[in-house]
Amino acid sequence: MAGMAQVAIREVMDIRQAAEYLGISGDTLYRYASEGFVPAFKLGNRWRFKKSLLDAWMDEKSGVKAAVVETVEPKQKKPAGRAR
Fold it and tell me: Which domain holds residue 21?
């Protein structure tokens, strides 16, 4: 958007940044964090929010399933017979 200053979204956000990112008021986010409804942690006496945890939480709450990474185990070879 031309003319608008873009604010970089940081991985760890304060309550104001996280509330803006989620599109809710700071008071609501503070209440959610205090009740343990959203993933958050306190640094000193201030709430902090990791963007990746908020994204995962939003995916979970909206019913979006994260891509499941399947690991394929290599076939085990049979041990070689004894040499004669």
Answer: 12-55
Looking at the domain assignment, is residue 64 inside a domain?
Answer: no
What token pair was written down for 69? 């990474």
pLDDT band with cut points at 50, 70 and 90 for residue 63: confident
12 close to 48: Cβ distance less than 8 angstroms: yes
For residue 4, what pLDDT is reported? Answer: 44
Question: How big is the chain by its Cα radius of gyration, in Å?
Answer: 23
Number of Cβ atoms within 10 Å of the Cβ of 28: 13
Q: Which of 21, 77, 67, 76 has the alpha carbon at shortest distance from 48?
A: 21
Name the domain count of the chain.
1
Q: Which three-class secondary structure state does DSSP give residue 58?
A: helix
Cα 53 to chain centroid distance, Å, stands at 2
Task: Report the pLDDT averaged over residues 35-41.
Answer: 95
Structure tokens at 31: 């209440």
